[in-house]
Write a structure and sequence with these properties.
alpha+beta; 12-stranded antiparallel β-barrel; 5 helices
Amino acid sequence: MHCSTGLIFLRAGALAVASGFALSPGWAQDTAASDEPAGPRLHYALGAIASNGPDYAGGDGRKSSLRPAWAVEYGRFRLSTSRGSAFMGHGLGTPRESGASATLAQSDRFSLSAALRIDKGRDGSDAPILVGLPSVRSTLRARLSAGYAVTDRWSVGAGVSQDILGRDGGAQLSTSVGYTWPLTEQTKVTMGAGASFGDSAYVRGHFGVPAGSASPLPAFDPGAGLYSVDGGVEVMSAINRHWVILGAARVSQLKGDARRSPLTVEPVGYSVSVGLAYRCCR
């Protein structure tokens, strides 16, 4: 991955998101004369997700959490948490990125979106083995994502993200393939698999051990490349037009230098989650 070219490309996508939110009210009025006479409408979803997963990628500890899941959508723009976006999209379209996102292009089978999101990073409080290591600083990431529906059930996707604040967060590339099985009119099962790649800055920040650090672990300087593969299943069901429930399970396996890192105690990790949300006003 050529980081400087990717950074320019992603900053352009970030500007597309920001400029989209700055559009004047006249935009909605102009659009009202098109295929949707009433113009864009405000939609939202509000709920909660309970989850359990590894304390960090490669860790052997577990942590549980109960977090709010929400999304607010107006036309092609959305502000959401990741699960809030999924709740909003169930049965009504393809879920988009977390954070502030905008659809740049869309057809019956293809979609292109840009997003800005906060990456919270990692510090020594996440697990005892991380004490003495430099923190992975929180930063702002810009992401461009594309998806294509090969058939009504099979889809593929890819996304590239970049730390745009220069906090050594580096760049990531993710790819995925998914299959959606409509169990009933109200319930669907989605199965998917993916692979994640990182440049040297990203992999070094998450799996490296700097020489001379306060950590007792041996120094380790990983390189760029594939660092994780994963697969999972998600079941979502609409109780009625407003209430939606979900259950999900996912397993991931570290690869390459990420797996060889002294920080990796357990290369295979799994997570489970359940959630409930209210959505309005479609």
